[in-house]
Structures are given as structure tokens and as C-alpha cells.
Amino acid sequence: MSFSSTAPSVIGSDVDDYSSTLNNSERGEPVDVPDKQDFERKYEEQKRESRTEEDLSNEKYAANPFNWSKKRKWIVVATVSCMMLLNVVATMACTPAVPQILNDFQTQNPSYSILLVSIWELGECFGPFFLGPLADHFGRLPVWHICNILYVGCALVSGFSTNISMLIAFRFLNGFVAAPLTLGPTIVSDMFPPESRGTALGITNLMPMTGLSFGPIIGSAIIGQGKSWRWIFWVIAIAVGGFELSSIMTMPETHRATLIRRRTKEESSQPDRPAFSLIVLLRAFKIWLFYPVALVMATYYAILWGFEYLIFTTLTEVLEDQYGISAEGAGFCFLGWGFGFAFGLLVGGTGSDWYIKRKKASRGSIKTQDRIPPAAIGGVLTVFGLFLYGWTAQTKVHWMAPIMATAIQTFGVAIISISSKAYLVDSFPDFAASATGAGSILMSFCGGLIPLAGPPLYAKLDLGWGNSLLGFIALALTPLPMLSVRYSRQSQLQQKPGRGL
């Protein structure tokens, strides 16, 4: 397996300069003669970089992350997955403590109960604008370590908040610097070829997505022991800090361009990377503008994720009102949500790789749009789960019925998640962090705003018709994956991912 490369040619540009100079000279125009030594220096640098890329593309070259041992790869996957898990747990751990928080700060504004959770998603919406391009330029590890240290600081300060506004502000900052959620899938994709990438992404996301259901359980356990809600944030800060110390010792760099620059620098005294330009921060907008299929798939997943987040943030209140389940007991009812997502990730990841291998065997090549068709199946399951959840909760069928419905919903959304993320990584191999970041921006935007519609939606339409409205919207979006496949086949632009970024 070899790396793809879209590196610009230094030699070609200098040859063009000499040709232009020659033409101007023949016309009698004044010319600036390029420095021969400068040309030879660039020529030697280009040869060294080309030789380094050839070495990294060699299937036997140890520095190529594709060629690392399985043990080394899965140690990295485990570290990344654990850090993603802690970040996700932190997102939801405060959910059972929301009434206690509002009481301590002497406010009963119902919007705060949703905002305390969803503000994190808004932070994640802005963070990837910076984290993705920075990781594609400076490498994964510098961004990873700096953000994790800042994360620990924000979590500690959240526990010392003196008012609700301060807590919400630092919850936002915590989401902003949550690098593992943006860089985790990218780091894993750096190590696995397309034929096994879906399974690796599914396993990586297994613990984090299950952690969404563990978060309320952990929060319930802490406040159930008589501890203040502040200990939820302090425990998270201690855990993340411990894993960050571990990752400093065990995490290698996986970014191909950074590995190439490092080896080139060993043979040259020249700077190891080009100057950073703020224009690269607009890369997410370029992906949305020039690659409509990437925008459609990311938006489709983001909207359904927003629906799931709406249900997640209101599930405790629904179970308390409809079934009389306590806040502590309601935390365990999130297990259905988590198990559905976990099973969906495993099925979606292995199914995506199976489909990719089948396509490669039949036509001899892999196309990026081959990641999309499984999302159509996930969409149908999500629609069914939304209708089932709304009407079983509305009519007060046994409490296990709406829990099973949430499992079906999350199973479908998990399949769409794998399809969307694998498609973005496969389409933009040289800018994988920026591509996954672009998807995370939309996902976090919908996850932060759509849940705010939950309380007024249920107050106006109740659970049955409220969730039916979500189901009808999801049903209208169901054809998008197959339409995207059809557009991808016709679009020549989609066959040249990364151009213009």
C-alpha cells in the first residue's frame, strides 16, 4: 500500500521561470537572471523530498504508519479511543447534576438545563476551524498535547465556577479545545489503508460513543455519593491529565507530511516546513464550496446527530415525567442509547470495509463514493426509531420500549457516522484533519442548536407528534446518500480530491 501525494513541484516552477526569462530576453525586454546556486539548491531539496516520499511509500519502510506492527497501531488506537471517551464523558456527565447546578446558582431558567450540555457542542463547532488545519500543517502531536493541557485547565476552572455564566463560558472553551474528538479519527486513518479503515474507525469510536451513555451514569454516581456537582469536573480533569501524561510517552507522530519533512531535515539544513498562512483556516469552507458531496454527507449526518442529541438531552426529563423514574435511575436508561451506537459502529465499520473490498475485487479499484451506500440503510433505521420512540413514550408503553427505540435510532446514526467520516478521510488524504474537522463543525453546530428546540417542541406537539416531526424530516433526507453516489459518478471534480485546498 502506498501513500498518495499532491506535493507541488519546485523544479517545474523554476524551469518555467528560466523559460520566461529566455523569452523576454529574445524580445529585448529587461530580465532578472535567476541565481544558478538558488536553482541548484531547490533542485537538491526536491530530490531529497522525492526520495523521502518514495521511502515512505515503500511497503517495507518502517516509518510508514501503514507498515507499523499491529501491536503498535492498536496501542495508538487504544490511547486515542480512551482520550475520546473521556472527552465524550465530560460532555454528558453533568446531565444528572443540572438541577443541582441550577439550584446552587439560584436560577430556574429552563434554557440553562439544555445550554449547560449543548454549549459544549458549540465550542466544538468553532474549534475544528483551527485544530484541523493546524494539525495538517504542524503535525498531529503538537496540537494534540497543547489542547489536552488546555482542556485540563478548563475542566478544573469549571469546577470552581462562581456563577452560571462562568460555568457555561468554560464549558464552551472545553469543547473548543477538545482535540481528540477532531484529531482522533484522523490519527487512526493515518495508520490504516482504506480496506481496513472503516473497521478501525468503528472500533476507535466504540468507547467514545458508548461513553455518551456512561457520562450520565458517572455523573449520577458522583452526586449519589453526596459529592458536589463540582467533583464531576474535577474528576474529569484528573482523568484527562493522567491519560495526557501517558500519551506524551506513547503517542508517535502519524502525519505523513510531517514524517517526510522530518527525514528531509535530517539531510538538509533548510527549514523543515513552509510558512503557515492564515488562509488555510478557510479550508473547511473550501471543502464545503468545491466538494458538494462532502458537504451533503456531513450535513446529513449532522442533522440526524442533532436529532439524537435532542432526545439525549431530554431523555431524563421524559423518563421522570412519563414513568416516574428518578434522576439516578434515569442515568442507567441511557445504556440502550449507548449499546445501539456501539453495535452500529461495529456493524457499520466492518460492513463498510466489506463493501469496499467487494468493489475492489469486482472492478480492480476503490472509489471514495463506495463509502456512501451503507448510510442509506442507517437512514431508514433512524426514521423508524424516531417514530417508535415518540409514540411509545407518549402512550406510556413499558419503559423498555422507548429505550429500545433509542437503541434503534443510534444504531442507524452510527452507520451514517462511519460512512460520512470514512468518506471524508478517503476523499482528502492529504488534508484528513481539515476534512474531518469540517464534518465536526457541522455536527457540533447541529448538536448545539437543535436540542434547544426540544422543550418548546414537546410543549407544543407532545412526544408523539414532536418526534414524528423529526421522523418526517429524517425521512425527507433519506434519499441524500444515493443521490450523492449518483452525483459523485458524474462529477469529474470529485475524482481529484484535495485540488485547490
Model description:
With 501 residues, the chain is mainly α. The protein contains 20 helices and no strands. It has helices at residues 10-26, 36-57, 70-92, 98-104, 110-138, 140-159, 164-176, 179-191, 194-224, 230-250, 256-266, 283-290, 292-323, 327-332, 335-363, 374-394, 400-427, 432-449, 454-477, 480-490. Helix 5 (110-138) runs parallel beside helix 7 (164-176) and helix 15 (335-363) packs parallel to helix 17. The longest helix is centred in the middle third of the chain and has 32 residues, at 292-323. The radius of gyration is 25 Å and the shape is globular. The chain starts with 9 loop residues before the first helix and ends in an 11-residue tail after the last helix. 50% of the residues are buried. Residues 1-26, 30-34 and 42-55 have low confidence and may be disordered.
